[in-house]
Every structure is written in C-alpha cells, then in structure tokens.
C-alpha cells in the first residue's frame, strides 16, 4: 500500500500522489539561524528553519510497538506486511476516544466520484474518532486551481490538504499566513497526548515547518524512488527475455519487441524513469549540487539533457505507444492487456494491475526492473522528501476544533494491525469488506466509498500491506530496498525550503517543454536556450539565494562532486 492504503492504488496526479512512504534521516545543523531569509528584503517566511529553533519545534518521537512487520524497512523503504488478521485479533491504538464531537470542514483532493454525505463509511469513521467531518472534496486533476482560489479567499475551510507539488506561486506564503501554529499542541512531549502522531518519523515533521512554525500534519513518504519501470515478467519469461540493464539494452530490446502492425508497442513514455537512469537531480528545492564549490541546477546538467535525448529517441523510433504521445488513455492498462511491454508509473500500480488481472488470469505477473546507470553500472538515485503531503488547520479554528482535528489525525495515523487502521482502509466489515481465509476483500460498496480521504489528515510510518497478494507486497518492498542501496541525499535533504515568491514560477515552463522535446515537437537545443533564459531571468539570482542558504545552514546531503 502506497501510501498506507492497500486498495487505492489507481490514484495519480502530475506528481504521482501515491508516494511510497518512509523515514529520512534528520540532519540538524547546529548554530544556524532560526529562520533564514535570504535575498535582502524578502518575506520573513522565506528560507528554512534549522538549529535549536528546529529542535524545539519538532514533536518527540515515540515508535509504535503495536505490531512488527513481516519485512522490516531498510534503505529508506517502507515496511511490509503480508498477512491480515481477523478483526478479533486486531489491537486498539486509540483506547480513549479523543474527539469531543465537534464538526469541522476538510478540503481534500479526490480521484473519482465523491461519496454521498452520510455514507456508512464516513459515519463509522466519525463515530469511532468522536468527530463530525464535512468533506469538501475537489477533483485531483484540478485541485491546484481550487486550492489557489480558496487560499486567496477569506473562506478557508477548517482543514486543508496541500500536496507538495502545489507549493508554487503564493501558496507557500499563504500557508504561513493562514494556517495555525500546531507547536503548542504537538512540539516536544506535547505530542504524546496523540500517540499515533508521536510515532510519525521525525523527518516527516521537519518537512512540516512553514514560516518558522510547525503547521503541517504530514503524510510520511519513503525516500526510495516512487516511479518504477514495469515490465510483463510473465511475457518476458515466455519469450526467453530478460529485463534490460543499460540504456542501450533498453533501446535494443524495444527494437526487438516493437510491432505496431500487430498493435503492440515496446513501451510507454519513459521520461520519469530516464531521470533515474541518467542520475538527474530531483525537482525543487533539491535540484542543486555542488561542483567545485559552485551550485549547479538540475536543468544545467549534462545528465538532464542526456535523459531528454534518450527519451526522445524512443519516441522518434516509434517504440512508444501513440496514446502516450497524445497523453490519453492508460498505458498501464495497455501493458496489462499485452499491448505494451514496458512502462513507468507509481510503484503502487504493481498491486493495482495484479489485483485486477489475476481475477481471470492467475499467472499474470508484472514487476519492476531495477534501475541501472545509462552505461550499465550502478545507478545514481536521489532520496525523496520524507513527506510531501500535509493537512493544515485554519488559524481561525478555535482550540476545540484544533483538538478535534488532531484527534481525527491521531486516529487516521494508526499503524497496520490496529482496529483504527482496518476501519480507515477497509471500512465496516460486512458492509464494505469481508474477511475469509485470511484475505480481506472489498465489495462494491467498499470500492465506491472507502478510498482516499482520511489518510490525508495524517498517516503512520510508511508500509506496504497487500495480504491478498503477498508476493506483490514482497516484490514492492524488496524493490524499494534494492533501489535504496543506490540512493543518496540531495543537498538540503529533508528541509522545508520556501523560495522567494519572485522565483516560485521560474521553473514553470520546463515540464511542458520536456514533454514537447521527447515527443519531437521541440529540440534539445530549445531546452538549452530555455536554460540560458532561465539563468538570465532569475536563475542565477536564485542560485545566489540558495548559496547563501547553504552557507548559513550547513545543509545536509551528498550531492557534491
């Protein structure tokens, strides 16, 4: 389950909302400024929080001992659980109902149809947590637009979910100005009033500090890659093929497999995988590395251009399914149907496809092959943030409302093997799911009502739990662990950095240009010109801002060469 949900594996967004969850090492630079605001006359909310101020803000960490995983977390992976217990054997992680019956509104993204108000799932969750939630769900594909409008208004809901990829424009400063400081409720030992929140890894809390205050309730994420290069293992074995181990092998394999006349293509768009194959730096704010004492940005690196050129060649050779070029349909579904041999998507797709296909084809096997460097050596992978999705509480909320929201967050952050987790993930037994022979199965009502809502309030340390397909659970976690062995921390890893507002849209054009280049609508040379324009249009000044931040904080990371 990624993140912390065994059946929500079809969710996605432009930044893959399903991030595998995990713990990142916390690095605190002693003696650094409490809140660094680089760039002269910038906002007080710019920069990052470090040193003693950071230590004072962070909640105490108290690990949950409710149940142990079948596959312990390793190398930044999630933990794995391959079995499900009957309801009678589940443990209770919230022995005392903390909610006081208050009603509050929560704005959150949703992919699919919004369940009807008063449905049995929401009703059961409210009753168990002791609160009453009025959901204001917005479609995930347009969530950023809705979010910006709401935060610009005076009518901010009591709680709002903000994904990290929406931290653009004025949204970061709105977070620091419109949402409550949770430090008085959670910093230090105060968090122990909410044991499941206390068990959230410290790295996730560090990423939840905005404007010098602890404001976010985090959804922890694994630091290993969340985008996986999938292939049809069963079909490969049938043809006597092996997974590729270099960029050239991948290309040659595509040439061998591609058969457009038979309506079969070698692959989908592989751009996301290419970033890992070519060792490209992550996206902001971790898109810098030190080279001879100078900060170099992701867009300025040879690796970035090489990844674009490789992805472009796959398209120009005709190896990529036409739907990928048009950005329509589901390439994953085409792979499951045998029309595409390889594609890349969020790791959670592993379970999603297997769960559907094995209903009729028990021999169906789809796995992710390990990343490799372009030349076939060990890959250079960069650790992902320890949290990149948060829920914030309105600064206008009174203490009773804040505590009711925290009570619900403590309930939703319950670990695997608890009664609370079972209810959140599967709904009410007999209404939304059944348990037979150790297998949990959602029925139609469960599939229509029990999906992404509550886990956004807060989630436990990351885990993968597919007891109905234990081989998939093992495969996913072990894949994470193998990739984690080649993962290093980028500069500023784990820090929540708020760039000056004047720079937040500086990179806006790159994603669309990347798509145009790999699809042949523009040339790699156009990207080189765009990078030159980026530098003169503010990129060099942004570099200076980050260099000052680096000098003042003694930032973490291994991205120096």
Automatic annotation (TrEMBL):
Q: Where in the cell is it found?
A: Cell envelope
One of its Pfam families is SBP_bac_1
Q: Which domain of life is it from?
A: Bacteria
Which keywords are on file for this protein? Answer: Signal, Transport
Gene3D superfamilies hit by this protein: Periplasmic binding protein-like II (3.40.190.10)
Q: What is its main location?
A: other
What InterPro entries does the entry give?
Bact_solute-bd_prot1, SBP, TAT_signal
- Coiled-coil stretches are none
UniProt similarity note: Belongs to the bacterial solute-binding protein 1 family.
Matching PANTHER family: ARABINOSE-BINDING PROTEIN-RELATED (PTHR43649), SN-GLYCEROL-3-PHOSPHATE-BINDING PERIPLASMIC PROTEIN UGPB (PTHR43649:SF31)
Name-wise, this protein is Extracellular solute-binding protein
């Amino acid at each position: 389950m990624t993140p912390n949900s065994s059946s929500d594996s079809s969710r996605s967004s432009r930044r893959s909302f399903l991030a595998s969850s995990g713990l990142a090492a916390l690095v605190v630079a002693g003696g650094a400024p409490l809140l660094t605001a680089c760039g002269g006359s910038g906002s007080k909310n710019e920069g990052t929080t470090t040193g003693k101020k950071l230590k004072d803000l962070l909640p105490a960490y108290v690990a949950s001992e409710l149940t142990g995983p079948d596959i312990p977390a390793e190398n930044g992976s999630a933990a794995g659980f391959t079995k499900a217990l009957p309801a009678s054997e589940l443990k209770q992680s919230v022995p005392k109902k903390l909610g006081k019956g208050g009603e509050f509104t929560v704005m959150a993204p949703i992919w699919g149809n919004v369940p009807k108000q008063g449905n049995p799932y929401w009703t059961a969750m409210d009753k168990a947590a002791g609160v009453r939630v009025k959901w204001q769900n917005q479609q995930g594909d347009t969530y950023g637009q809705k979010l910006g409008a709401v935060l610009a208004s005076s009518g901010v809901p009591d709680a709002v979910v903000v994904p990290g990829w929406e931290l653009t424009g004025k949204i970061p400063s709105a977070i620091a100005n419109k949402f409550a400081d949770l430090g008085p409720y959670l910093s230090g030992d105060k968090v122990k009033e909410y044991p499941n929140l206390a068990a959230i890894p410290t790295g996730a809390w560090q990423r939840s500090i905005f404007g010098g205050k602890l404001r976010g309730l985090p959804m922890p994420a694994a630091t290993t890659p969340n985008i996986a290069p999938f292939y049809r293992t069963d079909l490969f074995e049938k043809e006597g093929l092996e997974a590729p181990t270099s960029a050239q092998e991948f290309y040659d394999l595509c040439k061998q497999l591609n058969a457009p006349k038979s309506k079969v293509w070698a692959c989908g768009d592989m751009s996301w995988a290419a970033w890992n194959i070519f060792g490209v730096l992550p996206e902001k704010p971790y898109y810098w590395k030190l080279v001879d004492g100078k900060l170099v940005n992701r867009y300025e690196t040879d690796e970035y251009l090489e990844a674009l050129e490789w992805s472009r060649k796959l398209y120009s050779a005709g190896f990529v399914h036409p739907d990928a070029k048009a950005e329509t349909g589901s390439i994953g579904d085409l792979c499951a149907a045998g029309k595409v041999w390889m594609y890349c998507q969020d790791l959670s797709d592993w379970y999603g496809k297997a769960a559907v296909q094995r209903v009729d084809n028990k021999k169906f096997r789809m796995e992710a092959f390990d990343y490799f460097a372009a030349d076939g050596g060990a890959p250079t992978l960069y650790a992902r943030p320890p949290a990149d999705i948060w829920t914030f509480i309105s600064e206008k909320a009174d203490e009773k409302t804040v505590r009711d929201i925290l009570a619900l967050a403590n309930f939703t952050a319950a670990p695997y093997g608890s009664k609370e987790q079972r209810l959140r993930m599967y709904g009410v037994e007999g209404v939304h799911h059944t348990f037979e022979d150790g297998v949990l199965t959602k029925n139609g009502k469960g599939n229509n009502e029990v999906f992404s809502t509550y886990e956004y309030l807060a989630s436990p340390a990351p885990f993968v739990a597919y007891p109905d397909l234990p081989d998939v659970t093992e495969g996913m976690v072990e894949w994470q662990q193998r990739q984690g062995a080649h993962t290093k921390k980028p500069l500023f890893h784990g820090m929540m950095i708020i760039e000056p507002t004047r720079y937040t849209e500086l990179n806006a054009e790159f994603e669309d240009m990347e798509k145009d280049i790999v699809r042949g609508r523009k040339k790699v040379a156009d990207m080189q010109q765009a990078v030159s324009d980026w530098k003169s249009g503010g990129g060099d000044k942004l570099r200076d801002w980050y260099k000052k931040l680096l000098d003042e904080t003694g930032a973490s990371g291994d991205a120096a060469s």
